[in-house]
Design goal:
By secondary structure, the chain is α/β, with parallel strands linked by helices. 49% of the residues lie in helices and 16% in strands. The chain contains eleven helices and ten strands. It has helices spanning 29-44, 68-71, 78-95, 111-117, 145-153, 155-164, 170-176, 185-199, 204-217, 222-237, 240-250; strands spanning 5-10, 13-18, 50-55, 59-61, 100-104, 107-109, 121-125, 129-131, 168-169, 181-183. A six-stranded mixed β-sheet has the order 1-2-3-5-7-10, with helices on both faces. Strand 2 (13-18), helix 1 (29-44) and strand 3 form a beta-alpha-beta unit. Helix 5 (145-153) crosses helix 6 (155-164). The chain is globular. Bound molecules: ligand LHQ. Ligand LHQ binds at residues 23-24, 26, 62-67, 71, 78, 81-82, 86, 107, 109-111, 131, 133-134, 136-137, 139, 142. Residues 23-24, 26, 62-67, 71, 78, 81-82, 86, 107, 109-111, 131, 133-134, 136-137, 139, 142 line the site of ligand LHQ.
């Protein structure tokens, strides 16, 4: 049987590929379990300094698997399923102390879109579409979509995306700030790999601290956020990479960051 998620590591970059292409990488239990384990593996492995999440085949992910074997017929407690299967994954992505790039190669629907948006940098191919599919089947957005959307695109657009629930082409997603960059289909993965390879040579610890600061920013007032920056910058100032960054600047040479 094929693995529902493929994990590969090369030159400091881990690539996680959702691998149920026959159902557009719909999320069932085995896929979610392996995906969550693989994100933790990338977080824990010192050799990994950047992560790409992408999909096999023509989709990124069609969201929760709506097949009878996964979703059943009625008596499923979706709140419990979210708490046990989805929340650990979304939190692990947000708290991951390394940059995550989602390379959205096709449709990202429902919780599949939430996973794409949980990354630090969202790239999409020209043919990708984003779909808040939830209300189409009688649900509200979950797995972080109601958190990310208003923050990324503003409340008016978030509400329209949720309620109108139509496919949003990648170019429009880029225009409203859901996507960092759109690339021709065949260039998406090479570009993501190139960007990840670059991020993997940068001061990984500073990225981890920057992620903490950005995560905290969303719930802080200015005074609290300034204090958060000071607390985290104290840590950054004690890293080998900060010493190296300053030494390289003074010597007018390229820095050699170790991620520590
Ligand atoms: C699928 C799926 C799918 C299974 C395509 N499942 N097979 C919900 C419940 C539980 C807990 C937590 O949270 C959630 C949150 C959610 O994620 S709710 C949202 C769930 N997702 C959707 O409602 C999207 C359903 N899919 C679609 O609307 C379409 O498939 C999209 C727009 C994604 C793609 O359309 P097309 O490009 O036209 O492809 P297709 O519909 O022909 O799909 C290809 C195959 O994939 C097809 O199988 P088949 O055997 O006919 O070739 C689909 O049945 C299968 N598939 N999505 N979610």
């Amino acid at each position: 049987m094929n693995e529902p998620v493929i994990y590969a590591l090369e030159n400091g970059v881990a690539t996680i590929t959702l691998n149920r292409p026959e159902v557009l990488n719909a999320l069932d239990e085995p896929l979610l379990r392996k995906l969550t384990l693989d994100v933790a593996r990338a977080a824990d492995d010192e050799a990994v300094r950047a992560l790409i999440v992408t999909g096999a085949g023509r989709g990124f992910s069609a969201g929760a698997d709506l097949g009878a074997s996964n979703t059943g017929s009625g008596a499923v407690d979706l709140g419990e399923r979210l708490r046990t299967r989805y929340h650990p994954l979304i939190l692990a992505m947000r708290n991951m102390p390394k940059p995550i790039i989602s390379a959205v190669n096709g449709v990202a629907a429902g919780a599949g879109m939430s996973i794409a948006l949980a990354a630090d940098v969202v790239l999409a191919s020209t043919s990708a579409v984003f779909l808040q599919a939830f209300t189409r089947i009688g649900l509200l957005p979950d797995a972080g979509s109601t958190y990310f959307l208003p923050r990324y695109v503003g409340e008016m657009r978030a509400r329209a995306l949720v309620m109108i629930a139509e496919k949003l082409p990648a170019a429009d997603a880029e225009r409203i700030g859901l996507v960092w960059k759109v690339l021709p289909d065949e260039e998406l993965l090479p570009y993501a790999q190139q960007l990840a390879a670059h991020l993997a040579t940068m001061p990984t610890k500073a990225y981890a601290l920057a992620k903490q600061a950005l995560n905290a920013s969303l719930g802080n007032d200015l005074g609290e956020q300034l204090e958060t920056e000071a607390r985290l910058q104290r840590e950054a100032g004690l890293t080998e990479d900060f010493q190296e960054g300053v030494a390289a600047f003074r010597a007018k040479r390229a820095p050699d960051f170790k991620g520590r």
